[in-house]
Amino acid sequence: xxxxxxxxxxxxxxxxxxxxxxxxxxxxxxxxxxxxxxxxxxxxxxxxxxxxxxxxxxxxxxxxxxxxxxxxxxxxxxxxxxxxxxxxx
Length: 89
Fold this sequence. Notes:
Layout: H1 2-9, H2 12-23, E1 34-37, H3 42-48, H4 53-65, E2 69-72, E3 75-78, H5 81-86
């Protein structure tokens, strides 16, 4: 039920940001940069978020262009967690 609410009440950007924030290590108050290794292929993650792979990749690219994240294959470095969190609302 919560997945259905997530899909209908949140934009693709919000779903993606929420996913990234959930993947953060639990102790992140001590650093400004946070490295996440995506546990699955982007296609699987996109499907889980009810997005196409292209839409998911475009969202990641836009977040990168905004200076919020860096992408290196399966690794995503969150550069500005406070600004990224603003997108999750």
